[in-house]
Fold this sequence. Notes:
The structure is a homoheptamer.
Chain A: H1 5-11, E1 16-21, E2 26-34, E3 40-47, E4 55-60, E5 65-69
Antiparallel strand pairs in A: 1-2, 1-5, 2-3, 3-4
Amino acid sequence: MSGRPLDVLEESLGDRVTVRLKSDDEYVGTLAGYDQHMNLVLEDASIGAEAAPVEDTTIIRGDNVVSIIP
Amino acid sequence: MSGRPLDVLEESLGDRVTVRLKSDDEYVGTLAGYDQHMNLVLEDASIGAEAAPVEDTTIIRGDNVVSIIP
Amino acid sequence: MSGRPLDVLEESLGDRVTVRLKSDDEYVGTLAGYDQHMNLVLEDASIGAEAAPVEDTTIIRGDNVVSIIP
Amino acid sequence: MSGRPLDVLEESLGDRVTVRLKSDDEYVGTLAGYDQHMNLVLEDASIGAEAAPVEDTTIIRGDNVVSIIP
Amino acid sequence: MSGRPLDVLEESLGDRVTVRLKSDDEYVGTLAGYDQHMNLVLEDASIGAEAAPVEDTTIIRGDNVVSIIP
Amino acid sequence: MSGRPLDVLEESLGDRVTVRLKSDDEYVGTLAGYDQHMNLVLEDASIGAEAAPVEDTTIIRGDNVVSIIP
Amino acid sequence: MSGRPLDVLEESLGDRVTVRLKSDDEYVGTLAGYDQHMNLVLEDASIGAEAAPVEDTTIIRGDNVVSIIP
Lengths: 70, 70, 70, 70, 70, 70, 70
């Protein structure tokens, strides 16, 4: 998988991704949407590896994002 | 529910949402409006799960938002 | 009261509003003006619920705002 | 005095204003100029109520401003 | 290697690069993509020199970047 | 001296100015240039009143600036 | 040397420059490129005066920059 950042996000739609935030929180979920600001929509998301309670759909505002690992 | 972040907000109008802020405050309310900056209007909003006193309408400036959970 | 954030501000002109800032300061005043950045003009404004001395007109730069409660 | 924030600044030209910054510094001076970013020009400005030494003309970059009290 | 910053990134596609973030984290990986915001795509990326577990593809949001060393 | 902030900078070209930064550092130098972001060029600049070693030409990125005192 | 900030950068291409960052890190290197955001390319760069190991080419994202001393 290679290419420009938004192309990689496009290819990752429907895949499980790990999203690290500036707050050090880490979300894991299925990438259901994104936009050019890296605002993200995750489905079946949980916070961290500690298996926090699953949240259904989560919108993350892009300016909080450090990295996205498809 | 899937799609681009603002589409998910559009679909969530009238629904109860949880909004997490960079300050760690968490608002729960009915999503009554939004714009492209993720500025939000919540109705019947309260802060946190501790059932703080209900506030009628609350406008949240989008740059404070970490996540929105419809 | 519902609608997009700036519409709610428009409807709130002349009403008493509570403005929470990122500094945790809280202003209470009559909303006399605003613009698209959420820069605000408050009249008969005071800081906080502790009834600090009333200030006449106060311009608040929008990037400090967390929430506005009409 | 009411209206949009920049209109209130326009009306305040030549008046003494108090400018609060994000650093908690407070400038008092005569408003001699401004622009759309709320960059400000103060004349006969001093810092704080403690009557620090008067500075002649002071340009303040707008992104530091919390509030302006005409 | 010289030239404008984005030209240097273009020439570095396919090379191993070290990316320092504002959080002090340091990523090492093969530069697979970038855009004008310095959003980056790294392949075979690891965090730091301590050989943390290899992550496959990592998207880094540009506003976190301090420096990129090709 | 009065007028819009950038006009005051224009009038101050060639004058000694004091520039306060968000880091609390204070530069004193001759204003040799500026642009609309308040990026500045100082000549014969020194840091602070403690007469730190003189630096020849210094470019200051505007987003660090709190105030400029001509 | 005088003029607008980006003109001074243009004149400094090929010269040794000292770049101070908001993190307090200081880079010394030969200015090989820049753009309008003050993103910089340094060659033969080292961090600080302590003669840290020389790095070949370093791209610095402009929003980290406090000052550039040609």
